[in-house]
Amino acid sequence: MDVRLVVAVLACVFVAGCAAATEENTGTSSASATTRASASVCFAGRSFGGDPYASGGNSELGDLCRALPNLIRDVDGWDADYPFFRWNADLGHAVDVIVAALDTDGDGAVTESDADMELNVVGFSWGGFDARDVIALIQDDERFSDERKTIARFFALDPYQTVALAFPRHVMQVPANVVTLYEFRHTIAPSDDCSRVIKWLVGPFTGREPQCTGDTVCNDYDYSADDATASVDHCGVPGAAAHAVLELIAGREPQDLPPASSSTRY
User: Fold this and answer.
1) Looking at residue 263, what is its pLDDT?
2) Which residues, including other chains, have CB under 8 Å from residue 5's CB and lie 6 or more apart?
3) CA gyration radius for the chain?
4) Taking the complete model, does pTM exceed 0.70, yes or no?
């Protein structure tokens, strides 16, 4: 089914006032979960070779992406076979796909005349920075009205990316159009961390520190800060965070959040 049609139908159902979720069936309800429909888009970690699932963490990310509400996919593009955009995707094309999905009235722009939707953006590892960069592109894209440039939730799962092949980006500056950031990462690599590629030279890959503007709610969760989750490595973050991500999008407060750290601002 056409994603734009799904978006329009979902928005109509939610705006018409469908019954609030209850504790009996889907958990405690919240205003954000029942007044606006959601769309979601995912970005995968770096892979070696043609199969992204051959690289650790991407399979778990794929499972999470398929469970997200109204997933926006690259139906006719390079990444049509996957529930995410791969690490080497054309990010400009990814923005085009998002515009096409959210432009429910077909005028080539995303404005208040389109179905009202919250946008969730999820990115793992290399894809965490790809997601950040796509959000920044949306912020500057004239096809989006000012109100519709807003990203309701950005889930950064152990974001890690290198520049000039070997030098890691040290922090992740979150664009100002993000309402709420949820970063799930590990900061101390276990001895058997999957990302220890070449000792002393490549890896391990640990999630980069987020920096938010004064307007973004910035949540930085660290699995390494709790003995019970200290064994979570780079490839394990998508699976460890999946339940919390789905609960947060549904408007519920997860019970399994790792310890939070205070975030710096820019």
Assistant:
1) 85
2) none
3) 18
4) yes
* CA 189 to centroid of chain Cα atoms: 22
User: CA–CA separation, 180 vs 25, rounded Å?
Assistant: 26
Q: How far apart are CA 208 and CA 157, in angstroms?
A: 10
| DSSP-based three-state secondary structure for 128 | helix
pLDDT for the residue numbered 166: 64
Query: What single string gives the DSSP state of each residue in 186-239?
Result: -SS--TT-TT--BTTTB----PPEEEE-TTSEEEEEEGGGSGGGTT--GGGHHH
**Distance from C-alpha of 231 to C-alpha of 226, rounded to nearest angstrom:** 9
Q: Which two tokens stand for residue 74?
A: 């690259």
Q: Encode pLDDT of 68-78 as tens digits.
A: 999 999 999 99
Kindly state the DSSP code that residue 93 receives in the 8-state scheme: H
The confidence score (pLDDT) of residue 18 equals 31
